[in-house]
Specification:
Helix 5 packs across helix 9 (200-208). A hairpin with a 5-residue loop joins strand 4 (174-176) and strand 5. The chain is 41% helix and 8% strand. The protein has 3 domains: 1-41, Ribosomal protein S4/S9, N-terminal domain (Ribosomal Protein S4 Delta 41, Chain A, domain 1, Orthogonal Bundle), CATH 1.10.1050.10; 52-60 and 70-96 and 195-209, Ribosomal Protein S4 Delta 41, Chain A, domain 1 (Orthogonal Bundle), CATH 1.10.1050.10; 99-185, Structural Genomics Hypothetical 15.5 Kd Protein In mrcA-pckA Intergenic Region, Chain A. 34% of the residues are buried. The chain is an alpha+beta fold and 209 residues long. A 5-stranded antiparallel beta sheet has the order 2-1-3-5-4, with no helix packed on it. The two termini are 30 Å apart. The protein contains 9 helices and 5 strands.
């Protein structure tokens, strides 16, 4: 399985803003964007005025880096969104939000999407009481996502992870259950419930050329 293996902080510096790829560290002075505001690469090169194409590319890369998706898979999501009736950019974000690794992150089961992807890959998460180890699995309305533990209990290491948890509030399209460590998908995410600063209009313009 192909994956990004370089330093995550380089991605944040490349787009010029925090993407919160390393969880709690991004909220501390240790964050690379706070310490080194310049983009990676040769500093001697003069910064030119950003063109329209470069702004579109930057926004597309920001979305890719944020959700941890490689180019080929990201383009596939765009093609699927473009084939469906409705606003292409909004549907694209819905696909990205419905990924299982993102859902685990949104539920504060993990501190970052990368950590959530690792949890899913290692088989610590179930969907409808069945182990699901595919991070790109798209959840649907009515799905129940929870930790995989003995007799349905939450593993001890998972309890400490949830206590340290993420700082994001649970979006409205997910409902945390009465039992700790599980949640239900109430419906498809909407722009009002997606906590994102990505300008999807620029992404659509990038792929439309």
């Amino acid at each position: 399985m192909a994956r990004y293996t370089d330093a995550n902080c380089r991605q944040c510096r490349r787009v010029g803003e925090k993407l919160f790829l390393k969880g709690e560290r991004c909220y501390t002075p240790k964050c690379a964007v706070e310490r080194r505001k310049n983009p990676p690469g040769d500093r001697s090169l003069k910064r030119r005025r950003a063109s329209e194409w470069s702004l579109q590319l930057r926004e597309k890369q920001k979305a890719r880096f944020s959700y941890g998706v490689l180019e080929r898979q990201f383009r596939k999501y765009y093609q699927l969104a473009n084939e469906r009736p409705g606003v292409t950019g909004d549907i694209l974000l819905q696909y990205l939000e419905r990924r299982l690794d993102n859902v685990v992150y949104r539920l504060a089961f993990a501190g970052s999407r990368k950590q959530a992807r690792q949890l899913v890959t290692h088989g610590h998460i179930t969907v409808n009481d069945k182990k699901m180890d595919i991070p790109s699995y798209l959840v649907s309305t009515g799905d129940v996502v929870k930790w995989k533990g003995a007799n349905g209990s939450v593993p001890e290491f998972a309890k400490s992870m949830m206590e340290s948890g993420g700082r994001l509030s649970t979006p409205g399209w997910l409902k945390v259950g009465s039992e700790k460590g599980q949640a239900e998908v109430l419906g498809e995410p909407t722009l009002e419930t997606i906590q994102s600063n990505i300008d999807v209009r620029l992404i659509v313009e990038f792929y439309s050329k």
